């Protein structure tokens, strides 16, 4: 835990500052983008407005030119003032921008006039003369240009309290290079804005004529919407006058998304921000998961380190990919020595490596090991061996594919030792119990025999006493003494008879056991004792070999007794081979038909060892009861064995084994029900 | 060894043939016997007042293993009755168990014999036991007689006897008891007479046995 104490601290710090920087940069970028988009939009709107203004100015200019031509057309056919007035009225009908048309002569005297039908006569209130200076100026300019000229605009108050700004157009009429008269048209600036500019400019914008100083002269257009104003101005240069056309466009100022581009950028920014937020959240989740994972990893490691069970993982090629400390302790190799090590593993005993290799091959072929585990023998680094219980399970990765094998190991040498101890004590207990039974039996038997013997001894002693007396007794007492002696001898005979009956009853008791004999396949006898035999064999490192002839008949025997015989002989054989200098230790069981007897009536059982053999002096007394060469032995084993075999009608003997050791043989009767079946098996 | 008169050998054994054989053999040695087939039967005899065991010289041949009360149990009862001095017990057993044998002998059994008893050794032990029994009984009756004689003495005679046994001369005795020398002499003569002794030394020996 040393490293993680400080590491997540700074990494998380740095991580957070990086995140903050990222968020700030993104925000700055977005703000800039939105601002730029706004700017772009403004310039676009402004440009459109400028273009509109220019277009409007050219509209006005061309309309004015057309109007001039229209006015020239009035004089095409040398009109009279009367006819001119009619024509002029017709023209006024079509041109609402005009307020009044006049025909004046070269001295500006009024020849004919016409007022617009759409308004009350404009000059009624003040009279036409107030406009005289403007007319004169305009006409002077017109004569000078020899073309149309405009006066500067002026205000004409109206009877309704309002007024209008008007401007005069003076068109000189020339004939043969001389000015013969003038046509004067009074333009209403308001009318010009309404009539001469396309409707589309005035629908959403305010159009006005202003003077150079910004004073508004005439106004037309939509009412104000929004507070953001875009303004464009354009000079309208007319001969004799210059007007400024101004257009004002409005945009809603508090509009969050002033136009599509900005909206798009903003939407994308929002999306970006939310993605960043999601990323942050995801990051936080990841961090937490990482933390949990680190915790789980630490937990697992602590668990593995604290286990006394050895753990080892191998990949599918059999290379070691993981070992825990308990396993290292068990086998005495360090983790570095084991990791990556293939087969044969360093802890395999060299003589068993082939067997283990086969086992591994089976495992790799996909055969699952038994769930309850199996036992094996491992070798420590120092060469000592110890038994282990191995439990293996396939190692499945996250994709569900097998990547190897995980094995758990239990050192069971202690367990073995305890088993061995408990088995030994169990055996001792059984032996004691048997001994107690034997002792009880002997006590009973001796009591039963002692009673008649005591009586016999008494009578005999008494008789001897009487015989001594007879020598010195008076003759007349002799017959009585003799009858006494006779009685005593009869009693002695009776008691001797009684003792004989006791012996016979014991014999009968032993014979009665014949009734429990059963017919069974001979290998069953070996099967029954094999667990006990192999337990001791494993301890003494003896290899047990069994050799049974084919198609053996059933054996007819007292199963328990014969098993004891076999067990006894096997123990003796293994103990005989328990010599340090004996490297190879083999215990052989062999069952076959006895060769010497006719037919198949007898089976011969042999138990052979390859120990040092039996010395001659021991061999002579081998079957003598209570004769033993073992410190803890009772000396009854072999004599009982022989008794059991003889009760079955068989015989028991032993011969030296070749090249060394001893073979004990005994025979048992074959047959009984099921013998034929057994031989068919 | 001379046969002891009126001596009885009690036999307790569950086996009739053993009882009979023993009784017969003892008879050939001029010994009377009485046989019982169980420990309970023998105990009933002991409970009968004034009878057999403890009154006349006797010994008991006791089988260890019997159905019902065992020989060892009966032996315990006899110890608690205080009988085993006058009635020595010889155990008979078919299978010698050394610790049991040692234990019983320590607790006062006369002997422990193994069946089968081949010769007259058993009978010899029986006679020795009877002799012991007779001796014990004789000592007991002697003591009893002495006690009755002592009870016949008067208070003053007993005082004088005590001082005589201590070896004081008559004059000192008279001084101590504040009586005349003459009176002491009379008492002394009467004590000797009643205790059937002739001298002070004899009297002292007699009293030492009590």
Low-confidence stretches of chain B: none
What is the general shape of chain A?
Answer: rod-shaped
Structural class of chain B: alpha/beta
CATH topology of the largest domain in chain A: Beta-Lactamase
CATH class of the largest domain in chain B: Alpha Beta
How far the N terminus sits from the C terminus of chain B, by CA atoms, comes to 29 Å
What does this structure look like?
The complex is a heterodimer of chains A (681) and B (210). Chain A is an alpha+beta fold and 681 residues long. Chain A has 4 domains: 54-251, Beta-Lactamase, CATH 3.30.450; 307-411, PAS domain (Beta-Lactamase), CATH 3.30.450.20; 417-514, Orthogonal Bundle (Helix Hairpins); 517-680, 2-Layer Sandwich (Heat Shock Protein 90), CATH 3.30.565.10. Chain A has helices spanning 2-74, 81-94, 132-145, 189-196, 199-204, 260-306, 325-331, 335-338, 353-364, 413-472, 478-512, 522-540, 559-576, 616-620, 637-647, 675-680; strands spanning 98-105, 110-115, 149-150, 154-157, 163-175, 178-188, 205-210, 216-221, 228-238, 241-251, 310-315, 320-323, 374-379, 385-396, 402-411, 518-520, 543-548, 555-557, 586-593, 602-608, 652-656, 662-669. In chain A, strands 1, 2, 3, 4, 5 and 6 form a 6-stranded antiparallel sheet that branches. The radius of gyration of chain A is 70 Å and the shape is rod-shaped. With 210 residues, chain B is α/β, with parallel strands linked by helices. Chain B has 2 domains: 8-142, Rossmann fold, CATH 3.40.50; 153-208, Arc Repressor Mutant, subunit A (Orthogonal Bundle). A 5-stranded parallel sheet of chain B has the order 2-1-3-4-5, sandwiched between helices. In chain B, helix 6 packs across helix 8 and helix 7 (170-177) packs across helix 8. Chain B is elongated. The chains are: A alpha+beta (681), B alpha/beta (210). The A-B interface holds A 443, 446-447, 449-459, 461-466, 469, 484, 487-488, 491, 494-495, 498 and B 15, 17-18, 20-22, 24-29, 65, 92, 94-95, 115-120, 122-123.
């Amino acid at each position: 835990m040393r490293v993680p104490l400080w590491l997540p601290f700074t990494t998380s710090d740095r991580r957070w500052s990086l995140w903050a920087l990222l968020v700030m940069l993104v925000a700055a970028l977005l703000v800039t983008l939105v601002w730029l988009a706004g700017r772009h939009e403004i310039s676009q709107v402004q440009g459109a407005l400028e273009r509109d203004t220019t277009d409007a100015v050219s509209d006005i200019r061309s309309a004015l030119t057309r109007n001039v031509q229209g006015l020239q057309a009035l004089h095409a056919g040398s009109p009279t003032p009367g006819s001119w007035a009619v024509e002029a009225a017709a023209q006024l009908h079509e041109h609402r921008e005009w307020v009044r048309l006049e025909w004046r002569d070269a001295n500006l005297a009024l020849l004919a006039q016409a007022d617009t039908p759409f308004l009350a006569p404009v000059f009624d209130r003040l009279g036409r003369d107030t406009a005289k200076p403007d007319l004169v100026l305009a006409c002077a300019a017109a004569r000078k240009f020899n073309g149309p000229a405009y006066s500067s605009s002026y205000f004409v108050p109206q009877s309704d309290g309002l007024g209008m700004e008007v401007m005069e157009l003076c068109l000189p009429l020339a004939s043969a290079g001389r000015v013969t008269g003038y046509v004067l048209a009074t333009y209403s600036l308001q009318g010009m804005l309404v009539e001469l500019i396309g409707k589309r400019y005035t629908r959403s914008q305010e159009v006005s004529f202003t003077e150079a100083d910004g004073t508004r002269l005439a106004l037309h257009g939509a009412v104000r919407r929004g507070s953001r104003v875009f303004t464009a101005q354009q000079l309208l240069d007319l001969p004799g006058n210059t007007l400024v056309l101004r257009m004002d466009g409005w945009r809603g100022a508090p509009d969050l998304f002033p136009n599509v581009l900005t909206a798009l950028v903003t939407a994308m920014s929002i999306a970006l921000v939310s993605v960043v937020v999601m990323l942050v959240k995801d990051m936080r989740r990841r961090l937490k998961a990482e933390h949990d994972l680190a915790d789980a990893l630490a937990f697992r490691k602590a668990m593995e380190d604290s286990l006394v069970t050895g753990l080892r993982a191998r990949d599918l090629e059999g290379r070691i990919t993981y070992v825990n400390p308990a396993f290292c302790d068990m086998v005495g190799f360090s983790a570095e020595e084991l990791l990556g090590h293939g087969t044969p593993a360093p802890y395999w005993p060299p003589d068993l490596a082939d067997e283990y290799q086969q086992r591994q091959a089976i495992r790799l072929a996909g055969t699952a090991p038994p769930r309850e585990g199996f036992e094996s023998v491992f070798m420590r680094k120092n060469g000592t061996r110890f038994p282990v219980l191995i439990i293996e399970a396939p190692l499945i990765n996250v994709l569900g594919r097998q990547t190897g094998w995980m094995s758990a190991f239990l050192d069971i040498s202690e367990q073995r030792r305890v088993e061995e101890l408990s088995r030994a004590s169990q055996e001792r207990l059984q032996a004691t119990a048997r001994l107690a039974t034997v002792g009880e039996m002997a006590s009973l038997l001796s009591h039963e025999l002692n009673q008649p013997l005591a009586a016999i001894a008494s009578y005999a002693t008494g008789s001897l006493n009487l015989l001594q007396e007879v020598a010195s007794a008076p003759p007349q007492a002799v017959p009585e003494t003799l009858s006494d002696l006779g009685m005593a001898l009869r009693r002695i005979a009776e008691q001797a008879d009684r003792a004989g009956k006791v012996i016979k009853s014991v014999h009968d008791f032993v014979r009665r056991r014949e009734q429990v004999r059963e017919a069974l396949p001979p290998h069953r006898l070996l099967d029954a004792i094999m667990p006990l035999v192999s337990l001791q064999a494993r301890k003494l490192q003896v290899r047990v070999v069994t050799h049974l002839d084919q198609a053996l008949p059933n054996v007819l025997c007292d199963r328990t007794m014969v098993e004891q015989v076999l067990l006894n002989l096997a123990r003796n054989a293994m103990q005989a081979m328990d010599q340090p200098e004996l490297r190879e230790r083999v215990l052989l069981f062999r069952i076959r038909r006895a060769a010497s007897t006719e037919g198949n009536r007898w089976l011969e059982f042999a138990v052979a060892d390859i120990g040092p053999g039996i010395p001659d002096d021991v061999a002579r007394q081998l079957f003598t009861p209570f004769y033993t060469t073992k410190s803890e032995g009772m000396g009854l084993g072999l004599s009982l064995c022989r008794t059991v075999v003889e009760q079955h009608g068989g015989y028991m003997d032993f011969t030296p084994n070749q090249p060394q050791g001893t073979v004990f043989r005994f025979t048992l009767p074959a047959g009984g029900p099921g013998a034929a079946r057994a031989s068919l098996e | 060894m001379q046969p002891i008169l009126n001596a009885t050998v009690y036999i307790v054994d569950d086996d009739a043939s053993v009882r009979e054989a023993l009784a017969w053999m003892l008879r050939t040695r001029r010994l009377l016997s009485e046989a019982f087939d169980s420990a309970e039967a023998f105990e009933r005899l002991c409970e009968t007042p004034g009878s057999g065991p403890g009154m006349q010289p006797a010994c008991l041949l006791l089988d260890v293993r019997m159905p019902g009360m065992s020989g060892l149990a009966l032996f315990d009862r006899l110890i608690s009755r205080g009988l085993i001095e006058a009635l020595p017990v010889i155990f008979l057993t078919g299978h010698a168990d050394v610790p049991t044998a040692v234990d019983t002998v320590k607790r006062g059994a006369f002997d422990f014999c193994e069946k089968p008893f081949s010769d007259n050794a058993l009978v010899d032990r029986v006679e020795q036991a009877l002799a012991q029994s007779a001796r014990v009984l004789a000592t007991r009756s002697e003591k009893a007689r002495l006690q009755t004689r002592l009870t016949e003495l008067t208070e003053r005679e007993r005082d004088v006897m005590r001082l005589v046994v201590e070896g004081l001369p008559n004059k000192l005795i008279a001084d101590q008891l504040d009586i005349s020398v003459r009176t002491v002499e009379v008492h002394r003569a009467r004590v000797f007479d009643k205790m059937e002794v002739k001298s002070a030394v004899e009297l002292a020996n007699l009293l030492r046995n009590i």
